[in-house]
Design a protein that fits this description.
With 178 residues, the chain is of the alpha+beta class. The protein is globular and about 40 Å long. Strand 2 and strand 3 (67-76) form a beta hairpin. The protein has a 7-stranded mixed sheet. 29% of the residues lie in helices and 33% in strands. The longest helix has 15 residues, at 102-116. It contains 4 helices and 7 strands.
């Protein structure tokens, strides 16, 4: 299905917080893309956003006349200093617009913004190996599947895998970072 209405992608604004929390809460309660089982409160979600944006890392929102359609962001893949050029992405889309190109557009913009922020690699840590939508979106944007951790999560009455996908950003590992 292709979206017939236009949407824009822009940086997060504080007024987006309730809609972002609602989107994530839906995924926590009804999906397996997140391994969280209790949705964070609006306040906790705000703290998470502040942690990302205070580092100068992108947190993007897709919106149209109906409101926030989805969001995405990057964090450092791991906290140790050697990982400082490797980002981990996250993307969540409102359930009524899944499969309509919103997630792909968000991740495409996130790749550009993360590159501009100085990251050289991006890792997608995808909950549930049956999450063909997210795996497909990432593959269509140049991510390669680099591994699967089998049965590392238990949610929704079943064991869940975690799929790792990776993509070089900018010059990747062809040159040393500055």
């Amino acid at each position: 299905m292709t979206r017939t209405t236009a949407f824009q992608i822009r940086p997060y604004r504080a007024t987006d917080l309730p809609e972002i929390q609602a989107i994530y809460a839906h995924h926590v309660l009804h999906g397996t893309g997140s391994f969280e089982e209790v949705p964070p409160s609006v306040e906790e979600m705000g703290e998470r956003i502040e942690h990302v944006t205070s580092q100068g890392w992108p947190w993007l929102v897709a919106e149209d006349a109906t409101g926030v359609l989805g969001y995405c962001y990057v964090t450092r893949f791991r906290p140790r200093a050697a990982y400082r050029f490797c980002a981990e992405n996250a993307v969540y889309v409102r359930p009524d617009v899944r499969g309509q190109g919103v997630g792909k557009a968000l991740v495409a913009q996130l790749i550009q913004d993360a590159t501009e922020a100085g990251f050289r690699q991006m890792v997608a840590v995808i909950g549930d190996s049956e999450n063909v939508g997210s795996i497909g979106v990432h593959a269509s944007l140049g991510f390669q599947r680099v591994g699967t951790l089998r049965a590392v999560g238990w949610k929704a009455g079943r064991w869940l895998d975690t799929v790792y996908m990776e993509r070089a950003l900018g010059e990747g590992d062809e040159t040393d970072p500055v």
